[in-house]
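During the no-cost extension, the postdoctoral fellow (Dr. R.K.) reprocessed legacy sequence entries with the updated structure-token encoder. One reprocessed record is reproduced below for audit purposes.
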Amino acid sequence: MGRLFDITERGKEKTGFFPQSVAQTGTAENDNAVTRIVKLLPAEIVAGYVPLVAGAEAFADKDVQFALACIVLALGGVLTPLYLIAVGKPKGDIIKWINVLASTVAFFLWAYLLGGAFAMDQMKTFISFPYNKQIGGFAVGVFTWIMALVPLDRFRS
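Re-encoded structure tokens follow.
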């Protein structure tokens, strides 16, 4: 299983979440909703983001906390597409480029949900709405559903 979405035209009928080929051979020829959810989450980046933000929050100085949390947020936003491009090698595949873009958006949604810089008082000078973990959770859930269930094969030319 690669790191980016794989929607190929191999003539297999899909039934529910799994293509028929899964039941027959034990391997999926195309990504389905379940595997696309797994590939959508930039887990490698979020796994680094969480301890780095925790480290930033350990500083006593609130301005240092915020500066470091913002650096970690920006770094995650840059590393997500760079990592996926390096590992997934999307080249001319529009579906894989959609995955890179969607995973980058997903990183920022997860970062919002997890708090970090978004939950700090200094962020109020940059965004006009207060931090709300419930909105973050709702946004992550809806975005994940949409990206998992949208028929990406329609984007193929």
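The first strand starts at residue 14 and ends at 15. The chain has a mean pLDDT of 81. The remaining legacy entries will be reprocessed before the final report is submitted.
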